[in-house]
Amino acid sequence: MSFARPKTVIEENDTVILYLTVQSLHAIDVLPYIKNKKDELIENVFQTSYGALKVKELIGVKYGSKVQLSKGWAYVLQPTPELWTQTLPHRTQIIYTPDISMILFQLEVKPGSVVVESGTGSGSLSHSFLRAVKPLGHLHTFDFHEQRCDIAREEFKSHGLADFVTVYHRDVCERGFTEELNGKVDAVFLDLPAPHLAIPHALKALKHSGGRFCSFSPCIEQVQRSCEALEQNGFVEIQTMEILQVEEYVKTKVINVLDLEFLKTKKPEDVDAKDLKTTKEQKKYVTTQVPYTMPGHTGYLTFATIPPLFAR
Ligand SMILES: C[S@@+](CC[C@H](N)C(=O)[O-])C[C@H]1O[C@@H](n2cnc3c(N)ncnc32)[C@H](O)[C@@H]1O
């Protein structure tokens, strides 16, 4: 239940994030006992690269605390959608935080918004939508893979989010987003192999007062087909972008100080860069450096607006 609201103390059945290092985080369900392969109830001991943790010892511990492992220590954090995206069990490809932040911003998702999403997949993006629309809004999430729907429904329930989300087992390209949602939705998000087939259904779901649309596609051919379908269905402000995250490394550089006395003897127009001289004095600067390599392409985000009905 630890996703639903801020909490101080860990309780049984919470999901917690065990933070070992910035690259090593694990989501753990706080269950004192679990079943082994022989269906016997055994003590829940979580193994990490810094040794074992008896999960029942987390009950009553404050979120943010440092906890002892058998060969080191870790921090226990309350889960956020960002930490969940880093630690969730992958059932599909997922959408990551840099794309998610742009999706929420561009779709203007806020408390009270009604959002349609397909496919649900592993529920990575769903958790961010849910934090944004709570407590008055609702997420309607669709997937044609029945088992993924069942697991997502269970996950939302165990995270205390069931009141704010409905999971539908449905092929949205063939059957759309259900009659009841027609004209009721503020924003539609698609992460599908053939999003263009669902765009006419998105149009039906969006409010008559207008709304926003986004589709995530790894391939440019899908983007082309989506843009054509958006135009044919009356969408405007069609824009495709790619979010590339650049991490700047902070480092100290030592630089030789320029010989300014030498420059005084020359007219500025006579100074050639190769004539510049340095003194023996050195100065240290804290500066940043861009990485030599960068995470590559994840996907294209295509956004569009449907204007109010009277303006279409
Ligand atoms: C890449 S995953 C979505 C991942 C999700 N955005 C996340 O962040 O976890 C795509 C999902 O779309 C579902 N899907 C594909 N075509 C569909 C369709 N026509 N109707 C409903 N779901 C569909 C797949 O079953 C899959 O679970």
Please outline the helices and strands.
Elements: E1 15-21, E2 24-29, E3 33-35, E4 41-43, E5 45-48, E6 51-54, E7 66-69, E8 72-77, H1 81-87, H2 97-106, E9 114-118, H3 124-133, E10 138-143, H4 146-158, E11 165-169, H5 172-175, E12 187-190, H6 199-205, E13 211-217, H7 220-232, E14 236-241, E15 249-258, H8 260-264, E16 278-289, E17 300-306
Parallel strand pairs: 9-10, 9-12, 10-11, 12-13
Antiparallel strand pairs: 1-2, 1-8, 3-4, 5-6, 7-8, 13-17, 14-17, 15-16
Helix pairs in contact: 1-3
The protein binds S-adenosylmethionine (SAM).
Main attributes of the structure:
312 residues; alpha/beta; binds S-adenosylmethionine; 4-stranded antiparallel β-sheet; Vcp-like ATPase, Chain A, domain 2; single chain; Rossmann fold
Q: Ligands in the structure?
A: S-adenosylmethionine
- CATH topology category name of the largest domain: Rossmann fold
Q: What best-fitting shape do the alpha-carbon axes yield?
A: flat
Q: What's the number of structural domains?
A: 3
The description of the largest β-sheet is: 7 strands, mixed
Number of helical elements: 8
**How many strand units?**
17
Helix content: 10-25%
Query: What is the CATH architecture term of the largest domain?
Result: 3-Layer(aba) Sandwich
Structural class: alpha/beta
Order of helices and strands: EEEEEEEEHHEHEHEHEHEHEEHEE
**Mean pLDDT across residues:** 94
